[in-house]
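User: I'm curious what two different proteins look like when written out as structure tokens. Can you demonstrate?

Assistant: Sure. I'll show them one after the other, since each token string lines up with its own sequence. Here's the first protein:
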Amino acid sequence: MMTFRCLTTARAACIALTLGAAGLAVAALQASTYASAEPPGEGAPQAEQRIAIEVVVRFKDDRIVKDIADTFWKDRALAALKFEAFRRGRSEMANATLARVSYSNELILAFPCDAACRTQPGPAARALADRLARAADVAYAEPNVTFQPASP
């Protein structure tokens, strides 16, 4: 029995040292990667920021999206795939992607924003929400936007 415990302790120490060394190697690699990266604005290409309009959608019967909502909290990629299958054949959800799910099973859908809606997202968001709200099984659809007061 004592030999087993010592062997387990020795094995645990060996594993800890190995993982510790691997962790240090990863940290060193990450540090060198960040140190060699050019700061933004100094020759580094800027990724185009993707802007999306979000709409909060609640269905009259939660069971319609329950599987998507339950899956979202466990595996977001799988939930996105399930949403893609769900939205097929629903013209009001064309171009929509699943951004997130609320705790009350509302789907927060993201729609791509064109150049016109970047300056005035309110009307575009309202139009999308109205289009979604017209579906027979939708309880409500509201834009998920924050309006800022215009500066003088």
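Here's a second, unrelated protein for contrast:
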Amino acid sequence: MAEAQKQSEPEDEKRAKENKRVSSEANNVRPLPPQPSGMRGQSDENRRYVVLIQVALAFGIGFALANSLALIWRAAGIPQVRPFGVQDPTIAAFIIAGAAFFYTMNHARAQEFANEVMVELRKVTWPSWKETRQATLVVVVVVAIIAAILGTFDLIWAKLIKFLLQWGAS
């Protein structure tokens, strides 16, 4: 028995070494501690970002919906009343966007999802400014090379088609 126990110890050590994860900054990030009293488990910092993003989305959706509804209103020939100098579609769009905003702010699952997104975004390793510039330069150079190649092929095909059309016409 003692012999079997001695053999299992090195195997356990091997497994422990295999299971150890490489320590990195991303592995050490932990979500911010939850706040008690009505915050639904969100920290103040996360909550601030979530509310800010949801307000921005509500305004963006409101403007997009206002333009879409104005187009539909015009296509349907619905007469527009302009209370306070604002078009009906704009008022309707912002009422819908505001209702969606208040629904998501009071919906526990939506808030939990938004909080989890913020926690995951904190784990992201963002590139440095130097890396961003280098990657952008690579993209611009590759796009320029591909544009030159496609432009060359287009020029060659245009000349070839023009030659064939002239040759066929004569």
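A detail about the second structure: The helical segments are 2-19, 25-28, 44-76, 88-106, 108-123, 129-169.
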